[in-house]
Structures are given as structure tokens and as C-alpha cells.
Write a structure and sequence with these properties.
about 35% helix, alpha+beta, four-stranded mixed beta sheet, single chain
């Protein structure tokens, strides 16, 4: 589970992120990010009902993405709001592949200092 200081929770912050943020694409996830003045990065994980109608499947992907973020907490640059949006291929992907996809996408944004090796 992500500590509370790493969570992006307010609707106004999320709306600002989606209005003014930049995009990074990958086969399993899309990342929308925006630079802020805060000392820690904040994350939101978005898994829509188009991905799966079953909440069990959506929550499974959400937990996996949050776990992969938690693995990188010591290697993150501060000052970003980040939304990680899951794509349909994430439903069938193994955890290690999803973790690698999130890691490489975070590296493209400049949030990740030095990624963890698998």
C-alpha cells in the first residue's frame, strides 16, 4: 500500500493534472504527469470499466500497479503529480511484465532516478 503522502486524492489536483499534464505511452500503461512544487511525487491509479466489468479484475490490476510504485519509492524524484492509466493488455499481463512497464514509463517521465533491476 502506498503511504498517504504519495497519494493524489483531491479532485481539483486530478482535474489540473488531466488538463495540463503531459503523456507517456507504453503497451500496458499510459502515464499522465505534471511538475509541481511539492517535495514528494503523488500518484493516482486509473483502471476504467472498459478494461473489465468485474471489480475483482480492476482491483487486481490497481493493486499490482500500486505495488510496483511502492517498489520504487526510494528511487523517485519529488515534485510530480502522476496518473497511471491501465490499458486492456494489463489484464492478461504477468506481474513482472507490468512492473517492468510501469518502471520504464516512469523512467521516460524523469520521475525515476535509477530503476530497480528485475
Amino acid at each position: 500500500m502506498l503511504p498517504i503522502e504519495y497519494r493524489l486524492r483531491k479532485k481539483t489536483d486530478i482535474d489540473a493534472l488531466f488538463a495540463k499534464g503531459r503523456l507517456v505511452f507504453d503497451s500496458l500503461v499510459t502515464i499522465k504527469y505534471r511538475k509541481t512544487q511539492l517535495s514528494t511525487p503523488r500518484f493516482a491509479v486509473v483502471v476504467g470499466t472498459k478494461l473489465s466489468k468485474r471489480a475483482v479484475n480492476r482491483n487486481k490490476i490497481r493493486r499490482r500497479i500500486r505495488a510496483s510504485i511502492a517498489d520504487h519509492l526510494n528511487h523517485l524524484n519529488g515534485g510530480y503529480d502522476i496518473a497511471i492509466i491501465a490499458k486492456p493488455l494489463a489484464l492478461k499481463a504477468k506481474y513482472e511484465v507490468l512492473r517492468l512497464s510501469v518502471s520504464s514509463s516512469l523512467k521516460k517521465t524523469g520521475v525515476l532516478k535509477d530503476p530497480i533491476k528485475l
